[in-house]
Write a structure and sequence with these properties.
This protein is mainly α. It has 4 helices and 3 strands; from the N terminus they run E-E-E-H-H-H-H. It has a 3-stranded antiparallel beta sheet with strand order 1-2-3, with no helix packed on it. 14% of the residues are buried. This is Ctr copper transporter family-domain-containing protein.
Length: 178
């Protein structure tokens, strides 16, 4: 069997069945601690112990940031919801009620099912959601390397991040439906 490298791919020619198979460099398809796996980019493959530690610290911090973003999104959702209810009540006040009557946020909700589109609320909400999705995909790709150091760094980072920031998003959902 001959082995030939073409653009980072290992091409095996002359296997027992006479066909060709292509495999990626040195990617191990089982859980391992060996350094050298590509992380997100072809040039980012930590081969030394120091590079592995730095990469694991970076993944840990990225996981903390992900949990912080999720907590801040939950806090902002409550704020945006309250502000949108006030906006709806103001619209009802100016359109359909006499000057001496006041609409409450609850009466505004009963009249309209959807909250109004407010660019100052909805654009940041979309950006934060996209950032959280991107981080989730990046974590998935890191886990797919089967590098146990990467996986543990992400899991521990998410756990520590939830411990630090999780309480900011808890219990606030109840106030959104009052």
């Amino acid at each position: 069997m001959r082995v030939r490298w073409i653009g980072g791919l290992m091409l095996r020619i002359g296997s027992m069945d006479g066909g060709m198979t292509m495999t990626m460099g040195n990617m191990l398809m089982y859980f391992h601690f060996t350094p050298g796996d590509n992380l997100w980019f072809l040039g980012w493959a930590p081969y030394s112990a120091g590079a592995m530690v730095g990469t694991c610290i970076g993944l840990f911090l990225l996981a903390l940031i992900e949990r912080w973003l999720a907590a801040m999104k939950a806090v902002m959702e409550v704020h945006w919801h309250t502000r949108a209810l006030i906006e709806m009540a103001n619209r009802v006040n100016t359109k359909s009620l006499p000057q001496h009557a006041q609409a409450t946020p609850k009466s505004a909700i009963r009249q309209h099912m959807a909250l109004p589109f407010i660019p100052a609320h909805d654009l940041p909400r979309g950006i934060i959601a996209a950032a959280l999705a991107l981080l989730g995909f990046l974590f998935m790709l890191a886990v797919m390397t089967f590098q146990v150091g990467f996986i543990l760094s992400i899991v521990v980072g998410l756990g520590v991040g939830e411990t630090l920031f999780g309480r900011y998003g808890r219990g606030m959902g109840q106030s959104m439906h009052c």
